[in-house]
Predict the structure.
Amino acid sequence: MARNLQMPYTFEDRTGDLKSSDFDDIYDRMFLRVTPYPHASPRNTNSLAIYVMGRRSTRHQDARHLERHPSVILEFGQAHLGLGTVHFIQSPFSRTSIPMVNYLKKTAFFGGSLSRKFRAADGREYKWQHRSVDGHEWACLSEEGYIVAHYDLRPPNIAVYGISGNTLTIHEAYSSLCVDILTSLTIMRYIAEHRL
C-alpha cells in the first residue's frame, strides 16, 4: 500500500531581516517577499508589504515587487498609539483592514505578549508561541494543539554563505494559509523585537 507523503513548504528566509527578506520555498512552489511598503504615508514610514512573487528572487535585491499589488500591508503604529493595522488586499480596489491587536490577540489576559492567537482565512483559530514548542524559535499551533508551522533560527555553530540560515516551515495541509502565517509571524517578530 502506497502512502501519500506530504512535503512541507520550507521557506528559506534569505536575510533574516524582519523588514526586508525573501521567503523562497526550497522546492520552488511559492515565493514570498516582505519589504517596506513603497506607497506608505509620509506620516508612517513604518509600513511593510507582503507580496506573493511569481518566481524565485535573485540573490541580489530586485524591484519586481513594484510591478505587483501586495497581498498584505502592515502599518505599524507608534508605541503610544498601539500596534497598528493589518490590511488584507483582495484586489487593487478592495481591502479588509483590522487593528493588529484584534487580529493577533493575547492568549491569556495576564499572559505574555509572545503567545497570541489569530483567525486565518479558513475561519479557524491558530496560535503562535515563542520558544515553547520542540525547540522552535516560533511555533504556530492549530486549535487542537498540532504544529502547523514553525520558524527556526540557524544554529550559531553552523556556517552559512549568502543566506541567513533561518527557515519558515509550513505543513502542506496548511499551504493555503502561507500568507496568513507569514503575516502573523511578521507581526509576532515585530512585537518581540520592540518588546511590545
Q: What stands out?
A: The longest helix spans residues 178-193. The chain has two helices and 13 strands. The two ends are 51 Å apart (CA to CA).
